[in-house]
Amino acid sequence: MIEIDDSGTGDIVGDAFIGFLKKETGEIIFRTLSVNLFKDENWENKMPLKKAVELIKDGLRELNFQPDSETIHLCRGNIFDEVRDYFIEEGINYEDAIIEGKLQDAVEGKLIAHLRNDLGVRSKSLTKKSGAKRFFVLFNWVCYDFYKREKYVKSGFKKWNTVWRERGIIKFNKIQKSKKKQHY
Predict the structure, then answer these.
(1) How far is the C-alpha of 114 from the C-alpha of 111, rounded, in Å?
(2) Residue 72 pairs with which residues in a beta bridge?
(3) What is the pLDDT of residues 120-149, one digit of tens each?
(4) Whether 21 contacts 102, CB under 8 Å
């Protein structure tokens, strides 16, 4: 059996990851969905979902997936919508599943390592637990140096352009004013 899970696809900042766990051997591999897939025309054209299919095919090949004898447990996330269509078309035996334990921990860890090591997010409040708290940790990180960090934002997300971008600029300006006051 192979488990497949994702991380970062709903987070506002950074790349996203797909993790694969071959249960029999314990082997874990990862594939990356670039943040650029979540922007502009790429987002509008559902490129993250299309790229997910390519990455799934590649990961399954690397793990020597045997469609006649193995089953896939696939995370229920919508990033895998086109993967499900592919599995059905190809007659691949899969089940939608809630992925917990070793793979979930590993793929969330991959995301956190990317945010910390590649992007430089230093907040001690950044954890593997997704949700509102992580959103605000990442949003605040962007705001602190808005114009240099906005390139890491998944700007295709509707709320970024209708709500959060403007709030981010306002917060950035307040931070800048506060810094200037401290220097006098």
Answers:
(1) 5
(2) 2, 94
(3) 999 999 999 988 999 999 999 999 999 999
(4) yes
15 in Cβ contact with 32 (< 8 Å)? yes
1: tokens are: 């059996």
What is the DSSP code string of 45-79? TTHHHHHHHHHHHHHHHHTT--TTT--EEEE--GG
Q: Which two tokens stand for residue 77?
A: 């996330």
The overall pTM is greater than 0.85: yes
- Cα Rg of the chain, angstroms: 19
Residues 6+ apart with CB under 8 A from 141: 13, 119, 121, 123, 149
Position 93, amino acid: N
**Helix ranges restricted to H, the chain:** 40-44, 47-62, 81-90, 102-113, 132-144, 146-149, 158-159, 165-182
Which domains does the chain show, CATH number per domain? Answer: 2-107 (3.30.420.10), 122-182 (no CATH)
